[in-house]
Amino acid sequence: MTQITNREQLTAAVNAAIRKQKITDMHTHLYSPNFGELLLWGVDELLTYHYLVAEVMRWSDIPVEDFWKLSKQEQASLIWQKLFIEHSPISEACRGVLTTLQGFGLDIASRNLDEYRKYFSRFDSYSQVDRVLQLSNVDHVVMTNDPFDDRERPIWLSGTKPDPRFHAALRIDPLLNDYANTKHRLREWGYHVDDAWTQKSVDEVRRFLKDWIGRMNPVYMAVSLPYDFQYPDDSDRSRIITDCILPISRETGVPFALMIGVNRRVHPALGDAGDSVGKASIKPLEYMLSRYPENRFITTFLSRENQHELCVLGRKFRNLLIFGCWWFMNNPVIINEITRMRTELLGLSIVPQHSDARVLDQLIYKWSHSKEIIANVLIDKYNDILRTGWVIETAEIERDVADLFRNNFWRFVGRNDMVKYGE
Ligand code: RAT
Ligand code: ZN
């Protein structure tokens, strides 16, 4: 056991522990490679990430409708030209593309997009998954699996199982955010929900959830919720949560993840790039945590303004796991601030980050950027206790890092078989 007594040793030990630690990425939009075209990868996908579509619109005068008529390659070329060549690519999303290409060993100074395209054209998705997981040091990836998605649904129905490194998360946005339309789809699929919210509707929605839990074996059920989310209230959403989601979550042991604070389609023509953020109320979550102590909840908020009260709430309820810096929060300045605040209020009982990657290769930058910040936060926090005379063992740092990047998640979702310390 090596004892650490000064900041220099500490910096080396924290950096080494984080470098070695295999990561479980608990929320992504990636797919197992046997899901075919649903898994996105390559430089054109990196460049057309919706975070960059939003940014290119600020420099380009192309009408939005015309942008969508371009081929993927043409869109990527336009984004490259506007955001990388005509202006320096210093935004987090632009920098991410460069970090990713650098991770593959490509010549960033060349600025040669065609060369980058050529590089990716040599691979297939299976080998690319192995390469990217190795480069990013991620060994488990949680997907976002939507049974209402017409491209994804048939894949599950065909009995396909994901690669064991990829885990399902049952995403139920259409059920909770658009039940008026969703109930017709449920009926098409043989779930006999009534028009009104009757016991039969309750039973059928529960049956639907159980069928999909059986099919996907998800690590959690998840929903993204608007900033004006209220609970309980007189809405289909509240009724479904109370009568179906919470009881099924308790019965099956699959926690319920709430991602709160979206302001959807503020600029609808931009598609995913047109969503925004709003400050939400913490009260619905507080109500659920206290009213349903037997349920386990996982949460992240989109607005910076909600982060402090969320940490305070986390101190009151152990049935809450707080995770990640979500979407507009996934920027260095905010990751730094939020991770500091979380560790000060909640110690090491959090999951500091997830990638939200939509393109496989993004795992490289999302994790390398975040790890650098989290390492600096940990160094400062350990150093503060060293200054009191407390002595830290290297093994204790490795334990803490394993908890943050892997074990806190698996333990919370009841998968103790996945909890692992050391190599
Ligand atoms: O971060 C994103 O890419 C968003 O578009 C959303 O997908 C968000 O992360 C979500 O899971 O709803
Ligand atoms: Zn997401």
Structure in words:
With 423 residues, the chain is of the alpha/beta class. It is built from 18 helices and eleven strands. The strands form three sheets. Strands 5, 6, 7, 8, 9 and 10 form a six-stranded mixed sheet that branches. Strands 2-3-4 form a three-stranded parallel sheet. It has a two-stranded antiparallel sheet with strand order 1-11. The radius of gyration is 22 Å and the shape is globular. The model has no long low-confidence stretch (mean pLDDT 98). Bound molecules: D-arabinaric acid (RAT) and zinc ion. Residues 27, 29, 356 line the site of zinc ion.
Question: Gist?
Answer:
This protein has 18 helices and eleven strands. By secondary structure, the protein is of the alpha/beta class. The strands form three sheets. Strands 5, 6, 7, 8, 9 and 10 form a six-stranded mixed sheet that branches. Strands 2-3-4 form a three-stranded parallel sheet.
